[in-house]
Amino acid sequence: MTGFAEAVTGASNHLAHQALEAGHPGLPLLAILCLSVTCAIGLPGVRPGDDRVSASILWWRLRIAAFAGALLFWLLTICHLVLAERLLGDGAARWFLVDWAGRWGLLGLALIGLAISSRILAIRYGLTWLSKQLRAHRNSQETEALSDVRHEAARWAGAQGFDPRNHYRPGIVFTGLAPDGQPVSIPVKTALETMKCVIGATRFGKGVTFQVWADQAVQRGDCVIFVDPKGDDFLPVILRSRAEAMGREFLLVDLRETGAGRWAPLEHGPLEERIIRMTELLGLKERGTDADHYKILAASVIREVMAELPRTSLGAIADALERRDLSEGEWKALLSPREKLKRLARRPSLTPRAGRGLDLDRVIRSNAVLYVIGDIDDDEIRLAARTLLVEVAQLARRLRHERTAPLSLFVDELKFMASAVILRVLAAAAYTGLNLNLAFQSFADLLKPDDESLDGRAVLQAVLTNCQVKLFFGGSDVETAEWVQAASGTRPKRVTRMERTEVGAYGGERWEDGRTVGEIEEPLIHANTILTLPRGHAVLFQPERTASLVRVQPIRIPETEAIAAKAVTTAASA
After folding, report:
1. Could you tell me which of 295, 237, 256 has the C-alpha nearest to residue 557?
2. Which of 172, 339, 417, 514 has the maximal Cβ count within 10 Å?
3. What is the dihedral sign for C-alpha 93, 95, 99, 105?
4. Which class in CATH covers the domain with range 169-263+357-489+524-574?
5. CA 289 to CA 86: how far, in whole Å?
């Protein structure tokens, strides 16, 4: 071997010994830990999404340095293998490889895999959760929330019961309590000069509202007439107890087959008023059809008969028509009205004895309290109740200068009680002097009234236009809810208009720091509110005030009176 070769061999042996001595057993572990930490936390100082050129250059430099360090680690390992093989032989190299792989290989793979998995989980789920928590606990500028149907019901959570009579005050008509517990009322002047309507599904609060309003009407001295086609278990006893406390007469007339009390539809008042009630009762109103010829002819003959009779009871008119010498045309025209008269004359509640029965003229002049029960399932009794309302309207107009107290008329289930006369009363409230209070279930309910001669749209429009005090309960249909929303007006709300998120490298979404706040217009009473109102909760409209939410409660009756409610028998003499 030449001197040069010996020199090279000596130098390489010296270098190999130095490398092996420098190969401390902890260096592989240190390298693995460093690489694992780098995989877990990434490279500090920059983010991949940073758009600045300098940041991009630094990002790539750091990536190259990291990968170069990892590559250098593996190159040093290979060098160790080569040197071990050269100095110690093939067996030593194989032993070194097995020892290194067994000691550090699996550990390195496990730690690096754990680090990468931890980084993915932290970025995808951990940072998303942390971003959500930081956003939820911001010290933010004040904003409002838009209406959310899922949260509307919580508005009334924890509401306490109350007795309406504890909130009666002079000069107001108490209706209920607001969400904050403050009384909601209507000025008496408004209540007497403006007609009122209550809209809502059955058992949602219409009857309770009429309880409270009628009780206060009796208390302030109004002549109260309540026409209920369904009947109520407790309202009669409330009116009776209040009337007795005020020293006033209370009358109950039940028009049903087995009911107490009697009323003659065509016996009282001037002839012209009785003729109008006759056309209502017998269905002889003109409708602009070919049948009007026969209706006019029949009404003319019945008018002549009524003008001749000393007493125009249903039976007397039917008997007089049987005895009358009729032409063939008159006989045909009277065929249907005469049969209807006979059926009605067989009704005990509509055929009192002479000089007996309900006298509405006396009720109004004496400022009494009257409760009339109809039958929503009986066509003839519904028609009779509707005719009774016509007589009340006629008397209200005729006696308006003679009455000593306001006349308050309450009509439940307007769908079955509406008539052309009631519509005229709605259009001329000041002329009739009648304080009208109406109740029905929804807008759709009035679009097809029981009286087929009426235009449902016209009926609904007349009610909405002339009843300036309106109370809308829950359970309403969508059309009613949308009308309430539009009628309530709008108000500005300061809300968050936009917030942005950023999607991370592994699909985790994070809220950005900024948000856009602005004002939008939202209905004062949203349709969501109407559609989700619980029982006994409503929206009140009244003149010169904004729409407001109100909660109603029934009048509390002592247990002994509640038991006696169904046994109310006071009635007009038969």
Report:
1. 237
2. 417
3. positive
4. alpha beta
5. 122
Nearest alpha-carbon partner for 178 in 494, 550, 459, 439: 550
Closest Cα partner for 390 from 225, 199, 239, 251? Answer: 225
Q: What are the structure tokens assigned to 294, written together?
A: 């026969």
CB 513 within 8 A of CB 133: no
Q: Are 177 and 450 in contact (CB under 8 A)?
A: no
User: Contact at 8 Å (CB) between 409 and 197?
Assistant: no
Sheet holding 407-411, edge to edge: 183-187, 172-177, 548-551, 537-541, 469-473, 196-199, 434-440, 407-411, 223-228, 369-373, 250-254
Chunk the chain into consecutive blocks of 10 residues (it has 574) and report each block's average pLDDT, rounded to whole numbers: 61 58 57 65 54 62 66 63 60 62 65 76 80 76 61 66 92 93 93 91 90 96 93 88 93 86 91 92 83 88 92 91 88 90 91 87 94 92 92 91 91 90 78 87 88 89 91 82 87 73 76 72 82 88 92 81 49 40
Q: Read out DSSP for 139-151?
A: -PPP--PPP-TTT
Domain boundaries, the chain: 3-136, 169-263+357-489+524-574, 267-351
Tokens of residue 281, six digits: 């009762």
Backbone angles phi, psi at 47, to 5 degrees: -125, 150
* Among the listed residues 230, 231, 191, 193, the one whose alpha carbon sits nearest the alpha carbon of residue 212: 191
Question: Who's near 285: CB < 8 A, 6+ residues apart?
Answer: 279, 295, 420, 453
Looking at residue 134, what DSSP letter applies?
H
Cβ burial, residue 164 (10 Å; 0-12/13-18/19+): buried
State how far the Cα of 559 lies from the Cα of 15, in Å rounded to an integer.
110
Span between the terminal Cα atoms of the chain, in Å: 150
Q: Which of 526, 479, 519 is closest to 151 using CA atoms?
A: 526
CA-atom Rg of the chain in angstroms: 45
Strand partners of residue 228: 373
Q: How far apart are CA 280 and CA 257, in angstroms?
A: 21
Q: Which two tokens stand for residue 459?
A: 């009926």
Give the whole-angstrom CA distance, residue 386 versus residue 417. 5
pLDDT at 574: 40
Unique residue bearing structure tokens 């110690």: 88
CA dist., res. 312 & res. 320, Å (int): 10
* CA separation for the pair 227, 373 (Å, rounded): 6
Kind plus residue range of the DSSP H or E element containing 183: strand 183-187
Encoding tokens for residue 411? 């009509």
The CB-side HSE value for 466 (13 A sphere, CA atoms) comes to: 21
Q: Residues 423, 382: contact at Cβ < 8 Å?
A: no
CA angle, residues 570, 210, 564, in degrees to nearest 5: 35
CB-based contact 287:312 (threshold 8 Å): no
Token look-up 């956003």 returns 135
pTM confidence score: 0.75
Of 266, 258, 280, 252, nearest to 375 by C-alpha is 258
pLDDT of res. 10: 62
Residue 185, SS3 per DSSP: strand
- Contact between 439 and 411 under an 8 Å Cβ cutoff? The reply is yes
